[in-house]
Predict the structure.
Amino acid sequence: MTQRGPAEFTPPPECPVFEPSWEEFADPFAFINKIRPIAEKTGICKVRPPPDWQPPFACDVDRLHFTPRIQRLNELEAQTRVKLNFLDQIAKFWELQGCTLKIPHVERKILDLYQLNKLVAEEGGFDLVCSERRWTKIAMTLGFAPGKAVGSHLRAHYERILYPYNLFHSGTNLLCLQKASVNDVNKDKEYKPHELLQRQNIHIQPSDTSAPARRAKRIKTESGCVKSEGGEGCENRPNLRRRMGSFVAKPEPEREVPIQVKQEPVEIKEINPEPEKSKSRYKKNIPPPPVSTVDMYVCLVCGKGNDEDRLLLCDGCDDSYHTFCLIPPLSDVPRGDWRCPKCLAQECSKPQEAFGFEQACRDYSLKSFGDMADSFKSDYFNMPVHMVPTELVEKEFWRLVGTIGEDVTVEYGADIASKEFGSGFPIKGGKFKVAPHDEKYLRCGWNLNNMAMMTPSVLTHVTADICGMTLPWLYVGMCFSSFCWHIEDHWSYSINYLHWGEPKTWYGAPGFAAEQLEAVMKKLAPELFESQPDLLHQLVTIMNPNTLMAHGVPIYRTNQCAGEFVITFPRSYHSGFNQGFNFAEAVNFCTVDWMPLGRQCVDHYRQLHRYCVFSHDEMVCNMAMKADSLDVVLASAVQKDMQVMIKEERELRDKVRKMGVVQCELFEYNLLADDERQCIKCRTTCYLSALTCPCRPGVQVCLHHAHDLCSCPVSNYTLNYRFTLDDLYPMMNAVRQRAESYDEWASRVTEGMEAKLDKKRNVTVFRALLEESGEKSFPENDLLRQLRLVTQDAEKCSSVAQQLLNGKRQTRYRTGGGNSINQLTVEEMRSFVRQLYNLPCSLTQAPLLKELLNSIEDFQQHSEKLLSDEVSADSVSEIESLLEEGSQFDVCLPELPLLRERLEQARWLAGVRQAEDPVSNPCGLSLDSMRRLIDRGVGLTPHPSTERTMARLQELLTVSEELEENAQALLKARPPESLETLSSMLTRVDGVPSYLPNCQLLQDTVNRAKEWLQEAEDLQVGGQTLVLSSLSDMVLRAHAIPVRLEPLDQLEVLVSEVQAWKESAAKTFLIKNSPFTLLEVLCPRWEVGSSLKKKMRKMKGECVSSGKKKLVKLDSMSDVERALSHSKDSASAMFTLAEVRLKELESLCALRAANESKLLPTADCASLKVCVCQKQPMGAMLQCELCRDAFHSVCVRGPFDPLDPEAWLCPLCLRSTKPPLARIQTLLSSLQRIRVRLPEGDALRYMIERTVSWQRRAQEVIDSYNHSLTSQDCRGASPTQSHRTTEHKRKLLWGSPSQCQDWGVSGHEQSVFYTEQCCIPLQGLSSEVEELMVEGLLLQVSVPETQQLYRLLLSGPPTTNMSHTEHPPYLTPKHSSPQREVDAITSAEKKAKRRMNRDEAEIRDRGMKPKSKKQRMGTEKRRERKAASVSASDVSQSEDSEEDMTQCPAENCLQPEGEEVYWVQCDCCNRWFHMICVGVSAELAAQEDYMCVTCSTTNTVRRK
């Protein structure tokens, strides 16, 4: 019956296990004395012999027959047995009243009636618990959950089952017998049976038999099985009851009625009584008695005979009682046997029999017992016996021991005498024939037949053979068979050897805890010790080691396997059980150290009135009579024991003498058997003396119980003595003399070991005493071992202390961290210092080590204070200094790893603070830094400071990552998001203290978008003409900005319109597969010829400064395009194109002169390289009118119509289709409607303006030529004559093709090539007209003036002046002679060379003195004037004009010097002035037109 199932068993710690070497194993007593300081601390130990030590099994198996003991496991445990006894009493109580007890269930658990009764008694009884409503508290104490009205159920069960029993024990139910003489009718009426029945509602059913039930079948549920653990049914072990039934020695009678266990609620279940045993309880069923016998059928309580149907007759004494007069009243008449309160009291007051094991009714052989044991174990665990784990068997054993619901019965063949059946070890003269190689086991000290009687064992001086002590006992065990808690007789040693079989599990408590174990068991099961004070000496009671350990008793365990010894030490309680079928043998022995304990044990037995196995005094006297043969150690022990014995004996004899005992008689008690000389009071075996009385022959008492002999006068007593005191003293003196030298040495050793403080001796004194023991050959004993141990400990302590002081051992913290395995902890060092001071000897290192310990403790206090504070980034240096200090100590300091952890935490916090510092990290904490810090922080030991910082970092990282992801999503969104969405996103970023690249990029994107929108707004609001470069740049920048920009679509439309315009212009101007771009065609040519091109490339990269800005060099198309793109307005672009035009004319002029010179007849034709093929001229050649270079007619395409006089241009000079002027004016108009400036547009505009300007000048020349012709016509020249004259002049200038000379050789040889078409003659042609014609050919526009001027010049110039203005003649007046022609050619060459030199000088001059021209132009007229003036200056300037250009015309020139001198040009006279000399700033010169003082005065005079 278990309310709460026992907790799972926890195995105690293991006891020591020793494995001696062969040398140590040779002497068993020396080895046991060696291990005793260690093993006696645990009470038991295990010894494994050397592997080769395997004695043969010598027991006669065939002869070995034994009757085992029956053990019911749940009756072994003390607390369980108390509960069973209580249930027996309850069951007997109700059985005597004709009812059968049914134990109820509460919450699906069997109610623990014993615990419930105990708790109610502790709370003050049933009435107090009910009045103060403590049933819920009791329910919780029993382990039930609060609520569910469990308390009311417990009250009902207690009131129904236990309350009547407690009333019976208190004697309340007997009070009814005192009311028999009370005949007051009024008082009888006061009974209220019905109300009492309602209050005392006990559902009990009568029994059909009075035979007592056997305990083994006492508790049954209706299903036949009760489990102690809630929730487990009997289906877990369906055949358990069948198995257990096969091992019960005496089967229970079938007619016995068990105690029923019924599920809640408990109901009355009546059992029909047997007819032959039933007695009628009703008076009407009894024959009518005589009137004289009516009185014997009246109720003894109320004295009345009414209510005959409620009148009960006792089956024991035939007294009559009303059911409602009983206390408590009965609800109905029992149908079984019923006892009245008097008979019930008599029956229950019978003393309970002492508990003991039953002997089985069957005799077993070793084989039959083994078959039964193996079958039991295999059936119980449902597996082969060798596969059952020992841990499982152990837990199941203690579970079965502590449960009432399962009755498991086993058998144990214990205490089988080896003398009758033979020992398991071979013995001399035994029936077992020993093989020659096994004869060594006959003499081996570990043979249990030899051990008890070996010389070192004091039991050799016991004359009688004591079975179990001096003679081994055999033990045959099976699974769960157990030996209960006990100590050996006379507190002796015991040794147990397991010959074979399955392990034996042992539990032991050390000898110093014996009284503690006894006190705990008496406390937990006081009822058992009240009836049996020496219960623990009966070997019938066990208690769970976990229970003892819970009360502070030290318990150790071990599993003894086959071939292993288990040794128990004096007064060590031990118990255990067998794991299965096995065979063991045990015997006792006593060593010298046992002597004081042996005498103490006798005194203990006297108090318990327990018999002694042998007489301790007799053994001591026997040893004293053999003093000469004793070794000095044993002699010393005997002398000390005799001294105590003689003193006690003298005091007792003096006490008896004072009592009045005068008769004395010598009596040899050693001749009597032990049971014939026992004290009748304490059962002590008498030896030295005893008291007898003639009235009781054969009876004696020891002197301790002199008053318990008899009631006769003391003078009748006789003192029987074995020795007189005068006989004992010589015996003691003989022993003392034998041990005198040893005692003197022992006294000095004892004095040295017991010295205190400053009286302690040096370790050298102990070493001298140890050497003395060796010189005098003292045998091994406890004192010598203690001296040796103390000396060794002192030397070891001295060595370790010196090492600690010297710091010889390096701490592993300095070499890699961690603590050395051999380092002492602080507590160990503190204990070590205490050990130094507790040593019997003094060491010089102790004070120094104490000082070192104080330093370590100071370090610990400082460390603990630091570790108790919050982690701070400022504590890094302090922690590092502490770590450095701690590393100096050669001690394992637990603070060091904590300090290292704290250092890592502080460093991490410092890293976080540094990363967040705006000074050291102005950009803020990056995501990678946060991740690195978090990764580092994850490995740190948790701390609130780091956890808070980690949480903050994690939160910041989460927010930052989310912002980064959102920003990245916005940046990559397609289509792009609006500016408002991005700006709203940026408002979330404000205040986040971290560096977010995507958010920064988003911020930059927003800023760029705002700037772009502002620029777009400025372009729309300002009303300025848009520049394509700026427009394209804005579109490109808008495409690079991932924001939806509203004006972008409009700008893209403009760009697409401009691109469409450019495509239209390209179709208009560009020749198919032209290598030139549209801008190259529309702009003036910036390079002409290869030589000039190389020169321009060489000069590329040089810059000329003008004002505060550097002039842009126009050496390549990219420079021109860049200059046009960067120009602020059209005027600047026009000025740039005018410069390019100037270069074009200059370069082409030089090229023409060079090409003309190489084609002169004097040139070497073999070295000439002409045409696109760069070969020498040959055959029919075509000459370009623009570059004047010759080309093979086969290499280039000639004129379409040779007869049509049209200027032929080479492929290099023919750059476009030359559309008509009207068409390009339409293109310009369409561009103006777009209102976008682009370099091509500016070039087209300049081209139109240049064309119009050229048309005007060309028309003037044509008009002058026509005027000249008109003048000739007016003078009477006929046209025919005039034409003839012109043709004659042309022939004279160029000559006919047939008469052309060979240009490749000198002299009058024929030329190797000739020109197919007619070219404009250059001889005598003025430079102005030539340049005019060249410029007309350079125009990429078709105008009629070009053809007119060409035909005019091809036909020859007029002989008169062109106009009223002065112009140089086109042809020199002298041109008729060949010499003049040569001179003209030479003059042209010189002129061309002079022009080239001038150009170079001008370039060089510009490089030296940069000139800043005005960026802002006035009107078209001023530009034309400037262009004309520049063009005229190229023709009119003399070679010495270079010097004039380097001088400032100002009256008071300051002659500034330096790397950059700023100049300004007058818009009227085109002269250059130093800005500082005329008082003009660079800003003013760039914004306003400048007019010098001279020009300003002249204009003023003209206006007037």
Observations:
- The mean pLDDT is 75.
- The first strand starts at residue 17 and ends at 18.
- The two ends are 146 Å apart (CA to CA).
